[in-house]
Design brief:
Layout: H1 3-12, H2 15-52, E1 57-61, H3 75-81, E2 86-100, E3 106-114, E4 125-129, E5 139-143, H4 144-150, E6 157-160, E7 171-179, H5 183-186, E8 188-192, H6 193-200, E9 206-211, H7 219-231, E10 243-246, H8 248-254, H9 256-290, H10 292-300, H11 305-338, H12 354-380, H13 384-388
Parallel strand pairs: 3-8, 5-7
Antiparallel strand pairs: 1-9, 1-10, 2-3, 2-6, 2-9, 4-7, 5-8, 6-7
Length: about 400
């Protein structure tokens, strides 16, 4: 009989306790893995958005923690376009606004104000209608997810802000519904940049930069030159404003919302680790106490202390692996369930990546090792004669 088979049979002899232990630990693992998966999926979505559009630099107002509170004049955009080495600039106004439903309730959605030549349109797939054109006012394109949430299609009206029967300025006609490879755009609305300024009161919240590529030029050096040039720009009409230009990977690492999400993930992981270790410790201590005579017999027939430790730790790790498998499956289901809610389905992608699943398995194996260590050492110290006489 293989040693692993021996361990599995030991666990199956006490099926109810094994099942309850696995379920209890799986709940903690599912919470940890789901939280890590949400953060990982958001980061991956942002990375794919920048990679797919070949964005080299993200520019925002210096000293602002996130894109939604950045605000600067358009002079910076014009000057950035004139810098040597800059191939394209796509500016925008991004913020959250309320959408009033026909029932009178409101939901907060992300709007993006773009110009008709924004290179972000290049990877859109129109499902219905058309894209925004120059001169369009009070027209809106809806991402497919947002259109589904609002139940709106081409030709219908969306109300941003408060619906005032005497003031139609907040009513926007839907001219297009699109699919985007970027999850955030699927759940957002796109209006002209002039309309976005009227809705948010902001001038420009940021812009993306493509640096010209040439086989004769070191691209990283060209991007660094463009970064320094952009950060040296000044607006005479707003002398205190400064810009911060970041590579996409640096921008993602510094996003305050993602930092907060990572911190919450680590906190939940730490709590899950503590709860899991306590549960595993209780289960394995009970197991050792109930099997004192059995352990004494094993020691009497020649099992060394190290083999007894291996048996107890092996059982606790095996419990952890089963809980990890069940908990990861539960986390996958939880992320899919989460995306059924309209409030978040335009921002979160479902699923658990292999990297996150591996971290969940690693954490659970650690719980098994830590939770089983004390009972294992206690079992190995039992004297055969005393253990066999144990009631």
């Amino acid at each position: 009989m293989y040693f692993v088979t021996f361990l599995a049979k030991n666990l199956l002899r006490r099926r109810t306790r094994t099942l309850l232990t696995v379920i209890g630990l799986a709940v903690a693992v599912a919470a940890v893995v789901a939280m890590m998966a949400v953060g990982h999926n958001i980061e991956s979505a942002v990375e794919r958005a920048f990679d797919g559009r070949r964005v080299d630099l993200i520019v925002q107002q210096a000293g602002r923690s996130g894109g939604l509170n950045s605000d600067f004049g358009e002079t910076f955009v014009h000057k950035a376009r004139e810098l040597p080495g800059v191939a394209a600039v796509a500016e925008g106004v991004v913020n959250l606004v309320d959408v009033t439903r026909a029932s009178g309730t409101s939901d907060q959605v992300m709007i993006q104000g773009w110009r008709p030549d924004n290179f972000g349109y290049d990877d859109f797939t129109l499902k219905a209608g058309r894209k925004l054109a120059g001169g369009d006012r009070r027209k809106v394109m809806l991402g497919a997810t947002l259109a589904g949430n609002l139940g709106k299609g081409v030709g219908e009206t969306v109300v941003f802000g408060r619906d005032d029967p005497d003031d139609p300025s907040n009513r926007y006609e839907v001219v297009g519904v699109f699919d985007s490879p970027v999850i955030f755009e699927q759940g957002s609305a796109i209006v002209s940049i002039e309309d976005a300024r009227a809705l948010t009161g902001m001038r420009v919240t940021g812009f993306s930069v493509r640096v010209r590529r040439s086989p004769d030029v070191d691209h990283d050096a060209a991007v660094e030159d463009a970064r320094k040039g952009i950060e040296a720009l000044r607006d005479p009409a707003d002398p205190t404003a400064r810009l911060a230009a970041q590579r996409p990977e640096s921008y993602i690492n510094n996003l305050s919302h993602l930092k907060m999400l990572r911190a919450v993930s680590w906190l939940v992981s730490a709590l899950g680790l503590v709860v899991g270790v306590i549960g595993m410790l209780n289960t394995m201590i009970m197991s050792v106490v109930e099997r004192t005579q059995e352990i004494g017999i094993l020691r009497a027939v020649g099992w060394p202390p190290a083999r007894v430790i291996g048996m107890v730790l092996g059982e606790s790790v095996l419990l952890g692996v089963m809980a990890a498998a069940l908990g990861t499956a539960g986390a996958v289901g939880a992320t899919y369930l989460l995306t059924r809610f309209p409030q978040v389905n335009g921002f979160i992608e479902p699923g658990v990546s292999p990297a996150v699943a591996a971290r969940g398995f690693g954490l659970t194996v650690l719980i098994g090792l830590v939770g089983g260590l004390y009972p294992a050492v206690r079992a190995a110290r039992l004297l055969p004669t005393e253990a066999i006489r144990h009631d």
